[in-house]
Specification:
- It contains eight helices and 13 strands.
- The longest helix is centred in the first third of the chain and has 16 residues.
- The chain has a seven-stranded mixed β-sheet, with helices on both faces.
- The relative contact order is 0.11.
- α1 packs antiparallel against α2.
- The protein is an alpha/beta fold and 265 residues long.
- A hairpin with a 2-residue loop joins β2 and β3.
């Protein structure tokens, strides 16, 4: 099924034909996932309408095998509760953000931070298109000190990093600065997926670590790159701050084995 969708995509993924491509993949995903899914090109990004939500992405992807799987990985040891405050660092186009916002309800809050400007622009549309008013979006890289950094500009939005050949200048902030500026007294859940920059981000939360109850940090050692080898450093930092850390060493997905799930004592 997925192979057939890819072949159709190569033929139809061009201006003037994406409406037809959306119709084809809508049928394919509906049959493959056994639930209704409507996919269409908005003129800016792909939208996926299913399970009562509209998810946005710069890429054409099978929802159940990407969006749903990603959310399951992040929420392995955490069930969002009504009223929770969540910090989503490296939120991408908001495919997890909007579902987290719905789970914490109107009394809860999700702060979604994304570095790449084009991706952050999609993220900013994700909340309003779903009628969600409890999302705050921040277009900035998260690092050890405020300033300006350069990020890569890959078409695969989720792979852009501060450590490859960069061409896009972006503002940089710290988690401490975010917490102060937004007046956060407590962070119930901090989700981080920032392609190697986690080694910088943790250095910029010297104060806010004390109000953070639970974290999940996606490290990227499985990529085999120098910039992605952060797992040992991040693990040591979490343990140094008294967090109990769990991993999933037996998970068949190599990237999942590099996730660190931390709970405050």
């Amino acid at each position: 099924m997925i192979g057939a969708v890819r072949r159709v995509r190569r033929l139809l993924d061009r201006p003037g034909w994406r409406w037809l491509l959306g119709a084809v993949v809508s049928a394919a995903f509906t049959i493959g996932d056994r639930r209704r899914c409507r996919v269409r090109w908005t003129g800016h990004e792909w939208s996926y309408r299913y399970d009562g939500l509209i998810l946005l992405s710069s890429q054409l992807l099978p929802p159940a095998r990407t969006f749903d799987e990603d959310l399951e990985i992040f929420l392995w040891e955490y069930a969002p509760a009504l009223g929770d405050t969540i910090l989503d660092i490296g939120a991408g186009t908001g495919t997890e953000t909007v579902r987290l916002a719905r789970l914490v309800g109107p009394a809860g809050r999700v702060i979604a931070v994304e570095a790449h400007p084009a991706t952050a622009a999609i993220l900013a549309r994700a909340g309003p298109i779903n009628g969600l008013e409890n999302i705050t979006t921040v277009a900035a890289a998260v690092a050890d000190v405020p300033g300006e950094l350069v990020i890569s500009d890959s078409e695969e939005a989720g792979t852009n990093t501060l450590f490859a050949a960069g061409s896009v200048s972006v503002p940089a902030t710290t988690i401490d600065r975010l917490v102060e500026d937004l007046g956060l007294d407590e962070i119930d859940f901090l989700k981080m997926n920032i392609e190697g920059a986690e080694r910088l981000a943790i250095q910029g939360m010297r104060g806010s670590i004390g109000v953070t109850r639970r974290l999940v940090i996606s490290c990227h050692d499985f990529l085999g790159t120098e910039w992605g080898a952060t797992r040992a450093e991040v693990l040591g930092w979490l343990e140094q701050h008294g967090f109990v850390v769990h991993t999933r060493p037996d998970d068949p997905r190599p990237w999942c084995r590099d996730y660190l799930y931390a709970t405050a004592p």
